[in-house]
Amino acid sequence: MEAQLSILDLVMEATVTVQLVMLTLLLASMVSWYMIVQRFIYFRNGREEMFQFEERFWSGIDLSQLYREGNERAADGHVIVGMESIFRAGFKEFSRLAKQSEMDSEAVIEGSRRAMRVAMLREEERLERHLSFLASVGSTSPYIGLFGTVWGIMNSFRGLANATQATLATVAPGISEALIATAMGLFAAIPAVLAYNRFASRMDMFINRYDTFVDEFSSILYRQAFALRSRDRKAG
Fold first, then answer.
1. Positive or negative: CA dihedral 94, 95, 97, 98
2. What does the alpha-carbon distance between residue 146 and residue 230 come to, in Å, rounded to a whole number?
3. Transmembrane stretches, by residue range (predicted)?
4. Which of 22, 66, 134, 235 sits at 20 to 30 Å (Cα–Cα) from 218?
């Protein structure tokens, strides 16, 4: 308890500049922890929803039925994101273009792939949300803390120059408050860096799965488009 009180006393007695540095680092740490928790929940839920959709998609269900089920959930207020959002974008565009008899199979599939790529870019933006802030906190917090450290030590030696007797007790408080600023900088930076690396790895996993799904789904749509155009030619 005494150590905690002494640290608190050092913070309260620090210069205004060092206190502002500490406040900045404290706020950055609090915001980064909020974003870490938010991103953790988002990636966990997104992973579960992706696996559930993949299981449903590869179960042999009719794609039109799968699309209608998504419409029903969207009508109930459910926000559809992730792999299912990419599927819905591609299937919607495929259904629209397939009705145009003058378009060949290649054009239909190319249009569907473009729609899925646009949806995939939107999903990448959702995955990247807040990661840039975590990267900024991780890279800048040690330097902000170092600035507070330099400022505190500078004030300590300036006070030492005006002191009649140079002792360790004279400069110890200023150096202590300076080192606290450094510690706070590391306290803010380390979790942000670890979380950023973890989430960046998760994001790469999601993007790779999305990219694979686009290729696999395009192959399925190509077969359907080819069969549809063959029926149209026979009917004509």
1. positive
2. 71
3. 16-37, 131-154, 174-196
4. 235
